[in-house]
Specification:
The protein has about 350 residues and is α/β, with parallel strands linked by helices. It is built from 13 helices and twelve strands. The strands form two sheets. A six-stranded parallel sheet has the order 3-2-1-4-5-6, with helices on both faces. It has a six-stranded mixed sheet with strand order 7-8-9-10-12-11. Helix 4 links the parallel strand 4 and strand 5. Helix 2 packs parallel to helix 5, helix 2 packs antiparallel against helix 6 and helix 5 packs antiparallel against helix 6. The longest helix has 16 residues. The model has no long low-confidence stretch (mean pLDDT about 95).
């Protein structure tokens, strides 16, 4: 990954001159959000910096091991603490989100009023402009961007285990263990260097992908058996779940991770959607089997965004309205539109 030399020098200067650095990622943090912030946390700690991570809400329980020792501030539980931390900060690093609205609305308003330096490190489309942007939509994960930045800053290939483990986890979760978004050779070179830090890939894979609760397994079975709708002619499918159904299966953050991909396991389906009802909104996750189906573009029809083959959106409309709207879009094959 090639960086502008001036940007690297500016980044060095910002880090060197900052005493209090805060890291922020998006709502419902996934493996890449947790991994990129955790790796940067440990890197800055090793530099002797006063650094704190802020998440809008709790990370999934099964991914806690990725941010071991980080002790993030969780906004939904500690809003005043997060606000005070931001007000005391010299530097804010925004990782794995392209815009502040993907964090927390109240937090966004506070950040916009602050004059602190802001750096974006991300791999999503359509990034907001900050004091310094490292935005690479072609990267497999934000963790790949973070590794490349640290590699350039330090001129070294192998970092401590504390830095390498979260980077590895972020890349694995955002590529499905190197099964998609991994077409460039550089990512394998990076993964190899991360493993050299003393990682145990087999155990990490188990902890991320195979530590399921009984309720989560039954939820997946129920969803694919009872709540899957297939559109054979359009080569599309969606799964829909109400908040009552999620409650029946004792839903916890992260339990729906990967469910939308079940649609794409069908040989005759190229476009899949998961519709899940939350407390005050409907969440839509979009996936495509091929880059020729741009779900980021499709998500924009719902005021959402993301990547070419993986995107998401929210709606305040009732479930039935969302379903009917989506059905019409599928039957019109709008997901194939130019």
């Amino acid at each position: 990954m090639n960086f502008n030399e001036k940007d690297i020098l500016t980044l060095k200067k910002f880090i060197e001159n900052a005493n209090t650095i805060t890291l922020l990622s998006h709502n419902n943090p996934d493996g890449d959000a947790i991994g990129s912030t955790s790796a940067m946390f440990h890197y800055l700690k090793e530099k002797g910096k006063n650094v704190v991570t802020i998440f809008p809400n709790n990370p999934p329980e099964h991914l806690k091991f990725i941010h071991d020792g980080v002790n993030p501030i969780v906004v939904e539980k500690e809003f005043q603490k997060a606000k005070q931390r931001l007000q005391e900060s010299d530097l804010l690093m925004i990782l794995d989100m392209n815009a502040l609205h993907r964090s927390n609305e109240n937090l966004q308003n506070i950040i916009n009023e602050l004059s602190l330096t802001k750096i974006l490190i991300d791999h999503h489309e359509k990034p907001e402009t900050f004091d310094l942007n490292f935005s690479y939509p072609d990267a497999s994960a934000t963790c790949e961007v973070v590794y490349s930045l640290l590699n350039t800053l330090e001129n070294k290939e192998v970092f401590s285990k504390a830095i390498s483990l979260p980077l590895y986890c972020g890349i694995m979760t955002d590529t499905g263990s190197l099964s998609y978004s991994c077409d460039h050779p550089e990512i394998y070179y990076i993964v190899g260097n991360l493993v050299k830090a003393g990682l145990e890939p087999r155990n990490i894979h188990y902890d991320i992908f195979n530590k399921w609760s009984e309720k989560r397994m039954k939820l997946f079975g129920y969803a694919t058996c009872k709540k899957l709708e297939i559109f054979e002619k359009e080569r599309a499918a969606y799964i829909w779940l109400t908040k009552e159904e999620l409650k029946d299966y004792d839903y916890k953050t992260g339990d729906l991770e990967g469910l939308v991909n079940e649609c794409l396991k069908l040989g005759d389906v190229d476009f899949g959607v998961l519709i899940s009802e939350r407390k005050d909104h409907i969440k839509l996750n979009f996936r495509s089997k091929y880059p020729t189906i741009n779900v980021e573009k499709f998500a924009s029809k719902w005021n959402g965004g993301g990547h070419i083959m993986a995107a998401a959106a929210k709606s305040k409309e009732p479930m039935e309205v969302v379903r009917e709207k989506l059905k019409k879009q599928i039957k019109a094959k709008e997901f194939l539109s130019e």
